[in-house]
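Tutorial handout. Part one gives the primary structure; part two gives the three-dimensional structure as tokens.
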Amino acid sequence: MIHLLIHPLSAHRRTALAAAIASLTVLAGGAGISFPTATGSVTLGAAAWAQNTSVSPEDVTGYAASVLEMDAPRNEAFSQIKTLLTGTSYDISSIDMSCTGTANLNQLPRSLRGDVRTIIVNYCNQASTIVQSHGLTVRLFNLITAAYPQDQALAEQIRAAMIQLQQQSANGTE
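Part two.
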């Protein structure tokens, strides 16, 4: 399951790594990867995993492309949910709209829950497809999402890849 929030990004922040990735939810507990050992297993936190397992340039590019491509569907899903909530007393920012955190949708009126859940599930399925279309597994995408805040080198690589992809797109040279 991909771990994403669907809150939109403001237009002036789209080129900043922190803004683009701020809409992503990381795995609970800082995420990590577990390795079996002779005496049990060792779990590396996501940052340690990223530093000990260099993320390939292709993975960085795939990650950056995924984040950029998810922006329009995320904004659309957010807009659809906001429209559904118009006229209710519910503030959209108080609802956890991550792909794994839909339990709090029960606070919504029963008449809206199904529609909101459907929008979130559709977006999450689309996001998963986007990630896979850029050569990543959902697990690797989530690990990179969890690792980049603690790994400045990785964060800079992602930021540079996003800028390069946006420039290529603007020049029509994808």
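Part three, for discussion. Residues 7-20, 22-47 have pLDDT under 50 and may be disordered. The two ends are 28 Å apart (CA to CA).
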